[in-house]
# Entry
Amino acid sequence: MLGELDWPHRVIRIDARLNQAAARSTLAHELVHAERGPLPAIPALADLEENLVDQETARRLIPLPQLAHALADSNNPTQAAAILDVDKATLVTRLTHLHPAEKAWLRNQHP
# Structure
């Protein structure tokens, strides 16, 4: 577990061993959870909520112009994530869930 939100005490805990990018990504993820509320008790709904939180976290941490810059500088996901100061999983989530309009915008940045 990289981080957790303790609902009864309204406390976010982050694993102190994480590097800066992973800690930043984890904290943002937990803050989105704090905004959206506790996970549903039904496992399938909890999984869906985790996916939605991952997507929102990635959108917030990786604005499109910064994504374009990172991708122009490196086609290596690990390096691009480092440029963006996020963990690789957050970058992969952002890329996997790009809206078609975002994909078109990115294509037009570096024809």
Remarks:
- The CA atoms of residues 27 and 96 lie 21 Å apart.
- The chain has a mean pLDDT of 95.
- The helical segments are 20-36, 43-61, 64-73, 77-84, 88-96, 100-109.
